[in-house]
Each structure stands twice: as C-alpha cells, then as structure tokens.
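Cross-check.
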Amino acid sequence: MGTLQRLWRHLTTTQGSARRTFPAATLKAIQNKIAEGEVTHRAEVKMIVEGSLSLPAVLNGMTSRNRAHELFAHYRIWNTEENVGVLLYVNLADHKVEIIVDRAVGRAIKSEEWQAVCKTMTKEFASGAFHDSTLAALEQMNGYLTQHFPDQGRKKNELSDKPIVL
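Predicted model, tokenized:
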C-alpha cells in the first residue's frame, strides 16, 4: 500500500469507526470470552482495537506491529507474575491483527499457531463479521493457552478483561 493511500485511511478511520465496528455488545461479548478463557488457563489476555495511528506515526512509518509492541509495554501486559501476557491488537485503518506475547507464552506456543488465530479473526472481517470472527479467534486462542498454561487453581486476574478501544 502506498504512503498516500495509507495516510488517507488513517485520516478517515476514527475512534468512532472503531466503536461502530466493535459496538458495546461486541465488546461485552469479547470481555466475557476473555474471562471465560482465563478460568481455564493462567495467561492474561488483553484486546486493544485502534481505529488509526496518529499522523506523525504514519508519516514516520510506524507499522501496526510496532504499535502493538508499544501498547504491550504501555499497558504493562508484559508485567504478569508468570510472564504470560498476550495482546490481541486490531488496527482498522491498516486492516491488521497483531498478537504480541510475553516470554513464557512465546516459548510455549509456535508463531504458526498465532498466525492461525489471526487468520480465524480476519477471514470474515472483509464481510463485516467482526463480532463472530473475533469470538472464534479468542476461543482458538483460549484453547492454545489452556493446553500450555492450564489453570492450577491459584490464578488471580492481573489484567482487566475489558477490551480497550482507542
């Protein structure tokens, strides 16, 4: 995608666009799916939806992956007791989904599995099925996390399950 085309998409995709794409009912369903999964595994999942990047970020070539890493640090998703933080990041203007994982999760779960989660999530985005495809991707993610980090009855919720819309 050319710089001007990308710039235009970031200028025209707003936080309002993100809220229309992920309305309150969808955000609540996502929160419930994250909470449901965290009963079965020890990982901490956070979802952030961002309509677009700032103009300076786009002009400086920031990628969605870079932004996801920035948010992973900003929201301290890396700061869990067992190093099991997971960020599911959606950038609507770039049409990108990124998953950033903490060290323990990165050692246990292969990148191909994370790519499969992203594919589950994005395959229906073009048709506007954000609600169902996001829940399906979270279900798939919860399965991987439960397999590698099963709950052992001593887990506390270290990060809010509520998704963030920027």
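The chain is about 50% helix and 15% strand. The beta strands are 44-50, 85-91, 96-101, 164-165. Passed to J.P. for a second look.
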